[in-house]
Amino acid sequence: MPKAKAPKPEQTAPENTGPEIAIIEYGEKRASEFKGNPKNWRRHPEVQKDAVRGSLRELGWISPVIENIQTGNLIDGHERLAQAMEAGQDSMVPYVVVDLPPEKEDLALAILDPITAMAEAAYPQILPERFKKGAP
Fold it and tell me: Quick one: average pLDDT of 57-72?
């Protein structure tokens, strides 16, 4: 799938009165074409690496990685890319491009996972049994 520009908000909806939309582009490109963020603070334990590997194998790419146009750095998706490359697959990866100045990139990098981690797990009935074994 070639790169596609995200539609400008004014083209698809009335004036935006909510948060600024930083996403400017989306598309697919090879895993090797991304640049890791030197400030990435996340360290992934083996159990998480196994889970990411299994998710990619079972579901494929269901969430894009995030790349900042101003720096070329990744903001999210480092481990998914690492797993794709480790498997010897320079596969196509879905991505979104955001336009953030470096100080906002640092903030996004710092808070993206911690905010997600605040969610409480309810383990819905639709969860396959094989994934419930580790559930509290």
Answer: 92
